[in-house]
Structures are given as structure tokens and as C-alpha cells.
Amino acid sequence: MQASIQSIFTWSQNRIFAGGSPEIVLLVEWRGLSPADKQGKPSRKVVAREIELRIWLEPNVELVNVLGCKAEEEEGNSLLLRLGKIHSGQRRFAGLGFKISPMPAGRHNALWLQWQYKQPPIERIRELPVQKLNLEYTHHTSVLRDSCNSHVEKHMALLETEELLKRAVAMRAAGQQMPAYEMICRHADKLLLLATRTGDLLMLKEAESLYKYNELELSPHDKAAGEM
Fold it and tell me: How far is the first Cα of the chain from the last one, in angstroms, to the nearest whole number?
């Protein structure tokens, strides 16, 4: 039976410093598949539900940040991500930040991952084969200046947008209009810089959307009140 999920895992950097890394990001991307995809016929039916991604961490790897989902810590230095459902053709993303302790130079295992989900229409539980991800450690200090993978940087920024908008709503409800306004404005500036550097029109649209959000949600009266 064909799998209902196609996944891609992308590190923010191909190599890290052997002396340790304060944070390296793994972008998790999964897409819903169905037999109709092969025939080129569009379909929006649910192809997987109760999706779970279980992750086992090597001893030198520690989770420090999560965007786009919630991670439950479990026994044996493992994590469980509950990711809901996905439709055919839909793409979803999550970002995981890890702190890496020093290791000898070379290529070493970092994570082991396994997908599990219920596959309609018979709701059969499927477990996909365990996948292994490794990292290359080097003593060359040049890696400390390496830039983040642009695909990872883009989607982490978009995931951060979702989190900041939720936080802004709570801050404004608590009467913290100006701090919320400034937080959203800083993030919009970040997206605009990314759009300018990469030429990504989606990032430009997201930045413009955040600027408009601030204009609509924070009136001049609110600004004045927040500055008092």
C-alpha cells in the first residue's frame, strides 16, 4: 500500500563545529499523498489522520526550540510530535532547534525518526520505516560563519510569524498594545530584509501583510495609550 505521507528533513547547516553548536535547526516538511496524485487529478481528501512523528535523540543532542507544533518529551531521550491530519496535496512544516554538545570530527548519528498515522478509509494504523539523520562535525572554524540554508530560514521565519501573531493577540488583550506593535513590526522588517536578499515574493507579501495588520489592529489612540 502506498504511503500517505512524503517527508523531507533539512538541516539549517550541512556541517557544524565539532566544539559544539548553540542551535542548529531541522525543518520537518510533510506532504499528503494519494493514488490520484500519480494520475495528476487534484484531490483534497484527508489521506492521513492522527499523524505522529517520534524522534529519538543521540545523547549529545538536546531540543531547545519548537515552531509549528508541540513536542512531548518521552522516556529514552525521545520526543513525540502529534501533527493532526493532512489532505492530499497539502504541505505542512515544523521547525525543531537543537543544541549540540562537542563531538570528535567526522560524521555521527544525530536523530532517528519514525512516522505513524491512520490511513483512511479503513483507518488502518501505518508505521513507516525508521529514518536516520546524521551530522558532519568539523574543526574548521569557517563553519561558524556559514549562512543558514535559505529554504530553512524562509519557513522558520513563516512559522515564527504564526507564533508571534498569537502572542500579539494575547499582549493586546492584556493592554500591551505598543510592545505588541513593536514586536510585529520588527518581525515584518526581518521578513522584508529576507525578501530583499532572496527575491522571494512570498516573504514580501508576508511582510506587507504584517505591516497592514499593525495599521488595522493598533489605532493611533492605542499607540498613544501604550506610550503613556
Answer: 64
Note the pTM of the prediction, 2 decimals. 0.88
220 to 212, 217, 223: CA distances (angstroms): 14, 10, 5
- In terms of DSSP bridges, do strands 78-87 and 71-74 run parallel, antiparallel, or are they unpaired? antiparallel
pLDDT digit of tens for each residue in the chain (228 aa)?
678 999 999 999 989 999 988 899 999 999 998 765 555 555 679 999 999 999 999 999 999 999 999 999 998 899 999 999 999 999 999 999 999 999 999 999 999 999 999 998 888 899 999 999 999 999 998 888 888 999 999 999 999 999 999 999 999 899 898 999 999 999 999 999 999 998 999 999 999 999 999 888 855 454 444 444
| Exposure b/e, 90-117, CB count within 10 A at least 16 = b | eebbbbbbbebeebeeeebebbebebbb
Closest CA to 137 of 114, 166, 116, 106: 106
